Amino acid sequence: MPRRPSFKLLLALALTAMIGAVLLVSAAAPARAADAAAFEAAVTALDQKSFGDKAKAVDALAALGDARTPQVLRALSAGQLVRHKETGRILIAAGGTLTDAATGEAVGPADGAPLAKIVANNQIRTQIEAALGAFLLFSENPAERITAARQVLGNPTPEAAPALVRALDAETDAGAREALTRALAAVQLLGGGTAAERLAAVETLSDTNDPALKALLTTAAANDPDAAVREAAGDAVKAIDTRMAVLEVGQNLIFGLSAGSILLLAAIGLAITFGVMGVINMAHGEMLMLGAYTTFVVQEVFRATLPPSVFGLYLVVAIPAAFVVTGAVGVAMERGIIRFLYGRPLETLLATWGISLILQQAVRSLFGATNREVANPEWMSGSLELLGLSLTANRIVIILFAFAVLGGLAAFLRWSSMGLNMRAVTQNRRMASAMGIPTGRVDALTFGLGSGIAGVAGVAISQVANVSPNLGQGYIVDSFMVVVFGGVGSLWGALAGAFSLGVVNKFLEPMAGAMLGKILVLVFIILFIQKRPRGLFALRGRAFEN
Amino acid sequence: MLTVSDIHLHYGASHTLRGVGLTAQKGRVFCLLGRNGVGKTSLLNAVLGLHPVSRGAIRWEDDDITRLPTHQRARRGIAYVPQGREIFPRLTVRENLETAYACLPRGERRLPDEIFELFPVLKSMLHRRGGDLSGGQQQQLAIARALVTKPRLLVLDEPTEGIQPSIIKDIERVIRLLGQRGDMAILLVEQYFEFARDLADDYAVMDRGEVVLAGTRDSMEEADVRRHLTV
Amino acid sequence: AETIKVGILHSLSGTMAISETTLKDAMLMLIDDLNAQGGLLGMKVEPVVVDPASDWPLFAEKTRELLEKEKVAAIFGCWTSVSRKSVLPVVEELNGLLFYPVQYEGEESSRNIFYTGAAPNQQAIPAVDYLMNELGVQRFVLAGTDYVYPRTTNKILEQYLKDKGVAADDIMINYTPFGHSDWQTIVSDVKKFGSAGKKTAVVSTINGDANVPFYKELANQGIKAQDIPVVAFSVGEEELAGIDTKPLVGHLAAWNYFMSEDAAVNDAFIKKWHAFIKNDKRVTNDPMEAHYIGFNMWVQAVKQAGTADVDAVRQAMYGQKVPNLTGGISEMLPNHHITKPVLIGEIQPDGQFATVWRTDGLVAGDAWSDFIPESAKLTADWTYPWVCGNCEKPTYAQAGM
Amino acid sequence: MPEPALATNHGPAALAAGSILYLDGVSVSFDGFKALNTLSLVIAPGEMRTIIGPNGAGKTTMMDVITGKTRPDEGAVLFDGSVDLTKLDEAAIANLGIGRKFQKPTVFENLTVFENLELALKGPRRTFAVLLASLTGAQRDRIDALLATIRLTERAQALAGALSHGQKQWLEIGMLLAQEPRFLMLDEPVAGMTDAETEQTADLLREIARDRSVLVVEHDMEFVRALGCKVTVLHEGSVLAEGSLATVQANERVIEVYLGR
Amino acid sequence: MGPITRRLASLEKGRGWTVFLILTAAFAVGVPLLNAFAPADSALHVPTWVVQLMGKYLCYALLALALDLVWGFAGVLSLGHGAFFALGGYAMGMYLMRGIGDRSVYGNADLPDFMVFLNWKELPWYWWGFDQFWFAALMVVLVPGALAFVFGWLAFRSRITGVYLSIITQAMTYALMLAFFRNEMGFGGNNGLTDFKEILGFDMTADATKVGLYVATVLFLAASYLLCRFIVTSRLGRVLLALRDAESRVRFLGHSVTGAKLFAFTVSAMIAGIAGALYVPQVGIINPSEFSPANSIEVAIWTAVGGRGTLFGPILGALTVNGAKSFFTGVAPEIWLFFLGALFVVVTLFLPKGLLGLAATVKGLRRPTLPTPDTQPSGEKTHA
Ligand SMILES: Nc1ncnc2c1ncn2[C@@H]1O[C@H](COP(=O)(O)OP(=O)(O)OP(=O)(O)O)[C@@H](O)[C@H]1O
Ligand SMILES: Nc1ncnc2c1ncn2[C@@H]1O[C@H](COP(=O)(O)OP(=O)(O)OP(=O)(O)O)[C@@H](O)[C@H]1O
Ligand SMILES: [Mg+2]
Ligand SMILES: [Mg+2]
């Protein structure tokens, strides 16, 4: 047994009491001005060494119900609340300036001031969220009311019921109404309601896919005093489970597509340098890495020189930048080394391996051996719920991006005269030159294109993985696997290969675990190639013999 | 006018061409004969720049092109039908023909109809991959591809190899026609004596990397030539 | 002039370079500093840096080279357990000294290795205590990379949790390969596991590179620290420097040192580090502290012994006390482990940790875990009368023989 | 080696009996294009046969089917009256005694001319036998004789990759002879040869055909005439005409699709 | 003289034999003598750790030789040879592990430490027999051989060639690596097998044991060299070379492509297994990272550096690259990758036939070769 078994209970009680108080107070007068001195004292009281005392101080501050309370609490939660070490004043440090937490008076720039941070921990953050939720139930803004209702839903306590009822009475917005209804149902189910109300609450909540609500229903199914409620809740949980099982298939599919899109991006460049040109390009992974580091540099430039409002656009700039940088490296590699090796394919393995070592070490010397931070811009963060599936924004963007890159490339190779020249040169270099095609330039550009695309893929990869000098090594084996599995030289093969490997993996993983899942995928590849020795999209006919 | 003067060519240590010279004029067909392995293809490779010469000079239309890279020679109007076809196996027939566009200014990039009149089979196979064609079809494609570039010097290495008799007759007609048009020089390597004799305005016979017999059609003595062609 | 050579055996290339390069720099700084103060026994200390390149047999080879060719007095190095295992027979055979600065799975006490990182009882167990007692966690996900450290730690924790009355159903164990980068399924499983109505936490022994995509996925799937906190044993300031920490605020880590610790020695150390590395954005971390402690202990022991000779120094090591960076005094125990405070920190938006809990005093490192039956019997004590790393009763041998 | 499968169908089996090669109703299609269209052909033991026909008629494809390179969609291919070739792989078919020269010369470019012939030499083919095999004096003489026949004696130690086009043709003929097959197939053997060489080749083939069966594909009518054997004309994947050269040359359809006017 | 003896005698020309014997003797006898008798401070003295290091390199050389047999001669680029090496190593490691007995950490004579730790109660069946040296020695060749045979049979029968083959061999070694990482497999997980005490009763830390292992490695390398030489100079060797050019043409001559490749692949895997078995006692650890694809690729690199398609080349390559690696990681730990990378690039650009090619160009060619295309790369070659 835990040494302090009552802690959770204490926390729950404290929260309950506080929310109750706040709700009551705020219901009576949404934004009452507290006595200025009392408020200031309450704010100052937040500066406590022990988290327990801090929690009490938060309680007290919330209980004042002052209109300025949310601002102070938010600052505490966000780690912006500080104490001036000399004056002892409690300040809010945000956006580089200091304001007095109690009076709102501007104090000056934050830079260089001797400040001590007032730290919040998870419990206090939770406490603050609940308290803010209570404040916001009666906010002017329906969106905030919905957030508040969700907040209560996350921490349902019986004391919240009256306020919810009142808020519901006054509610006009349909969305907020629904959220409030659910919150109320949750509160009632947790013990705040009569048996009938609880039964109705189960009904209201049973169409959810939200894990938190399922947790609530599970608790009810086990602990509710009323047998009927227990049964209904049990049924609801079962229904949710069934729905989830179906959704899981969809979810796995999306996971698979997402994993596949990363594989695809990693492999497309290789489909050119290796699939089309036949260069066993061991430095391909390093091209991905260079792309990712270019992203990092672009991001840093944005951070350093441009206002935060346009920060989200750094990726848009990083894509062409990465293409140019890695494309140029690719052209340099081709002109400097690889062009001497056509007709000696295996030597390209050796040379490009050497180049890959050099590039790795160069990046390590330049940027350091440690990971570099590349942030997801706002528009690529978080997730959206669709039909009960949760889709993380960055992955959706990457899936679409992968398709766009592949489509663009396929069109280029198929329809442009440069594309035709590229294919001609790689199939018969001598004859191509006899047809007037400048093979040297075409080779350089082809290699540059493949490398550039790898760089662009690196931009995408920087959004989901770590940016370090080893980045490339993690993808090189998989990339070759995809290209070969799909069928060397076929872009559509790469597409099908990447997605089928991604999806197969994601369906195996829940059953077999990540480790065994991966092993099974590899065995699957080995066996599959037995059946189709030239890959999934093997092109057949005399043209492909030898 | 193409002038090859005193060229030498080496493969590694082996001295394959030893001072070969010839002149092919526009409006005439120049025929090159010789047994296997005497250096005919090597000579053409030198003309196209596919293999460097170690000595001697090649002039085309008043310019010295001895050191020019192959693709620039092609852009100066030299087209090549190589021995062994050398089509692009994984490009479609149409794409194979379109590789010739690299020599043409943008406005002139189209496939002339005459090609399909000469080789009707290509028309019906435009979307088939070049490598899937039969040997003779590939040979036809290789000739057609060279014609698309609208060459002023057409270099053909045993163009009739593997082609059915009726089409050989057509090819013969076309070569004669092209030769007579006056704006094109034709350099033809051929083993098949009668075909060569019927077409040649000028001829040369090679043996062991040297020209051993040369002249115009009128001076061509069948017995002399044949002597050099037998072992 | 004669010098005392010290080997630095950290990977500067390959997969482990990410973590180990910093330690090499830290060692160079410590040695510089010592030399600036006049060196040791009147001699300069000369660092011998080699790159074992994340290649385990190469670790053994380089150790041999350091000991036989360079004749170093001590080696500071290794990160992964397997690299230490690879080096162990060599230092034992050639009677060298290895200072190992990383938290590890325990179950080892070599005569020739000093373990200055945390043993499981100095990190994992207190962290789990914190989760249960302070956060009221009842359900645990033990997620780790599939290798020995996570396996051992999780085995110890599983036993510990069961002893504390946690049901088997409430423990989910998950292993992933090295460098695992696609965490979608696992994070969504965690989410599901956490929806059973009991407070849930993740105890992460996920290693190295795999952490960044893991945390990114956590953030994107919206798992917040208040809902399902993750407490990590391998994620320190250095790892956080590679992640955008804003969505991760409140997730936890258990260490024996945080850069944010408010202590004068720490401030001085950080200042020195920034000056040495010429970049005041660089962070410090727990293994650096471990090297700091280990190196200072070694220096003191050499001074005390009056020689850098391995046997003499080893004897002098026991009971050696030096200040650690959190304001306490760490001591070398006869089992070759040291005493350390255990701290729990929460991730802050600025990439630092804020200490939210700490043990009252220092915790003594245990070589042999009490929660593994075979191991509970064993004792490590290299002083008379035990003189062994793994025995059940005293052996009465002369130490150092 | 797998057991040679017997043709089950009684009708063809009866017809096939006594033939060295028997094709019945063989069809092959590529992406819907019929390269062979219910082709039937019978070659008797010891017979020499010439196949002619327009480019793309299916001659090479037919050889591919016989040598196991291409599997027919339907139809029977029997060797020696009973062995079903469609069930065997290339090596097994070669070991039955069927040899082939390709249309585009294919030799082992990184082996010397001598070694090319050595590999082709008739002899045991099992892996361990090949491992332990060594060249006997008789075999060496045989190779020397072959080198003389194909006029590459001087270049015996040159890499095959360094030969000219025509020389490779000859080398391939030499390899075919070295195999001593019971049934030889030659796809355009005289392409790229001078007229004199063409004549010599015809003599060579006629001599060989004395105790073996030979199937030749050619477009060179002089050569076909010199061979002086029965001619089969293929067109669009099936037989258009058959008979002596004079007969087929007189055939209107043959003139129209193949010979031209 | 019987035909086989004659064949053996003709493996090398007169001078070849002399060089071979001198090299073998220098390594097998000379080095140990210098180790034992040259005074420790003389320039001639070879310290034991250097002998051991050389032993390690020679194991790599043996592995490279094995790879060259399939890659250089049959054109089968296996990027999974590290797997055979590691399997041989594990077989030996298991024997050494059993040899620890009750000197283990937990003092359990019946079970290796990691099994005790995992709470296993008895030895799994696949560990049976490994306390016998002869059994382990048998497994050293049989396990890699059997894997190669089955894998090769599947692959060659299905006519998987070129990169497709390379990549599935890579998948094979990758899958094995992941599998061996799993603790449940019973091979010690990531930490692998280590802390060995004795081999055949000899103390592993004794200098004599180390020198003995080194000499054994030299002898195995010499013997394997002769075996490979026998294979590649045989008619089968010519079939393998021919395969590399035109696989289907070989079939039309009636040779069994599958059989030839399978033979070479299996023999090669067995040699790789022996290399692994010699390697483990000399480095003292075997862990799953030996299976990592990068390791196998490195073997190909050594082979290419030395000169593919010659038997001496890969040996030279392995020694050079690993020597360079040891040297540079010591003297230039921060930037040694630049040197190594540059070495690879330079070798490819200026020594197209590897280090040995350099020697050959100097001495005049042993075998005629196609002239390298100078200005214009020739012919239609698919690179893959
Ligand atoms: N790439 C090469 N390397 C070395 N030698 C070569 C090469 N190509 C051709 N040769 C040699 O050069 C000589 C001339 O060859 P070339 O191809 O020019 O002859 P050819 O007259 O065209 O013969 P054919 O009528 O057979 O086509 C031959 O002896 C041939 O062996
Ligand atoms: N893989 C393929 N895909 C599509 N069409 C093919 C393929 N292989 C062969 N063909 C077609 O089948 C037909 C028969 O080809 P085949 O090579 O047998 O002709 P052939 O009689 O040998 O002609 P030639 O005299 O020109 O050598 C040709 O039209 C060819 O284009
Ligand atoms: Mg020629
Ligand atoms: Mg044909």
Automatic annotation (TrEMBL), chain A:
<feature type="transmembrane region" description="Helical">
    <location>
        <begin position="387"/>
        <end position="413"/>
    </location>
</feature>
<keyword id="KW-0813">Transport</keyword>
<keyword id="KW-1133">Transmembrane helix</keyword>
<feature type="transmembrane region" description="Helical">
    <location>
        <begin position="253"/>
        <end position="280"/>
    </location>
</feature>
<dbReference type="InterPro" id="IPR001851">
    <property type="entry name" value="ABC_transp_permease"/>
</dbReference>
<dbReference type="InterPro" id="IPR017779">
    <property type="entry name" value="ABC_UrtB_bac"/>
</dbReference>
<protein>
    <submittedName>
        <fullName>Amino acid/amide ABC transporter membrane protein 1, HAAT family</fullName>
    </submittedName>
</protein>
<keyword id="KW-0812">Transmembrane</keyword>
<dbReference type="GO" id="GO:0006865">
    <property type="term" value="P:amino acid transport"/>
</dbReference>
<dbReference type="InterPro" id="IPR016024">
    <property type="entry name" value="ARM-type_fold"/>
</dbReference>
<dbReference type="InterPro" id="IPR011989">
    <property type="entry name" value="ARM-like"/>
</dbReference>
<keyword id="KW-0472">Membrane</keyword>
TrEMBL record, chain B:
<keyword id="KW-0029">Amino-acid transport</keyword>
<dbReference type="InterPro" id="IPR027417">
    <property type="entry name" value="P-loop_NTPase"/>
</dbReference>
<dbReference type="GO" id="GO:0015658">
    <property type="term" value="F:branched-chain amino acid transmembrane transporter activity"/>
</dbReference>
<feature type="domain" description="ABC transporter">
    <location>
        <begin position="2"/>
        <end position="231"/>
    </location>
</feature>
<dbReference type="InterPro" id="IPR003593">
    <property type="entry name" value="AAA+_ATPase"/>
</dbReference>
<dbReference type="GO" id="GO:0005524">
    <property type="term" value="F:ATP binding"/>
</dbReference>
<protein>
    <submittedName>
        <fullName>Amino acid/amide ABC transporter ATP-binding protein 2, HAAT family</fullName>
    </submittedName>
</protein>
<comment type="similarity">
    <text>Belongs to the ABC transporter superfamily.</text>
</comment>
<dbReference type="GO" id="GO:0016887">
    <property type="term" value="F:ATP hydrolysis activity"/>
</dbReference>
<keyword id="KW-0547">Nucleotide-binding</keyword>
<dbReference type="GO" id="GO:0015807">
    <property type="term" value="P:L-amino acid transport"/>
</dbReference>
<keyword id="KW-0813">Transport</keyword>
UniProtKB/TrEMBL annotation, chain D:
<dbReference type="InterPro" id="IPR017781">
    <property type="entry name" value="ABC_transptr_urea_ATP-bd_UrtD"/>
</dbReference>
<keyword id="KW-0547">Nucleotide-binding</keyword>
<dbReference type="GO" id="GO:0005886">
    <property type="term" value="C:plasma membrane"/>
</dbReference>
<feature type="domain" description="ABC transporter">
    <location>
        <begin position="21"/>
        <end position="261"/>
    </location>
</feature>
<dbReference type="GO" id="GO:0016887">
    <property type="term" value="F:ATP hydrolysis activity"/>
</dbReference>
<protein>
    <submittedName>
        <fullName>Urea transport system ATP-binding protein</fullName>
    </submittedName>
</protein>
<dbReference type="InterPro" id="IPR051120">
    <property type="entry name" value="ABC_AA/LPS_Transport"/>
</dbReference>
<keyword id="KW-0067">ATP-binding</keyword>
<dbReference type="Pfam" id="PF12399">
    <property type="entry name" value="BCA_ABC_TP_C"/>
</dbReference>
<dbReference type="Pfam" id="PF00005">
    <property type="entry name" value="ABC_tran"/>
</dbReference>
<dbReference type="InterPro" id="IPR032823">
    <property type="entry name" value="BCA_ABC_TP_C"/>
</dbReference>
<dbReference type="InterPro" id="IPR027417">
    <property type="entry name" value="P-loop_NTPase"/>
</dbReference>
UniProtKB/TrEMBL annotation, chain E:
<keyword id="KW-0472">Membrane</keyword>
<feature type="transmembrane region" description="Helical">
    <location>
        <begin position="133"/>
        <end position="156"/>
    </location>
</feature>
<protein>
    <submittedName>
        <fullName>Amino acid/amide ABC transporter membrane protein 2, HAAT family</fullName>
    </submittedName>
</protein>
<dbReference type="InterPro" id="IPR043428">
    <property type="entry name" value="LivM-like"/>
</dbReference>
<feature type="transmembrane region" description="Helical">
    <location>
        <begin position="252"/>
        <end position="280"/>
    </location>
</feature>
<keyword id="KW-1133">Transmembrane helix</keyword>
<keyword id="KW-0812">Transmembrane</keyword>
<feature type="transmembrane region" description="Helical">
    <location>
        <begin position="16"/>
        <end position="37"/>
    </location>
</feature>
<feature type="transmembrane region" description="Helical">
    <location>
        <begin position="84"/>
        <end position="101"/>
    </location>
</feature>
<dbReference type="InterPro" id="IPR017778">
    <property type="entry name" value="ABC_transptr_urea_perm_UrtC"/>
</dbReference>
<feature type="transmembrane region" description="Helical">
    <location>
        <begin position="335"/>
        <end position="358"/>
    </location>
</feature>
<dbReference type="Pfam" id="PF02653">
    <property type="entry name" value="BPD_transp_2"/>
</dbReference>
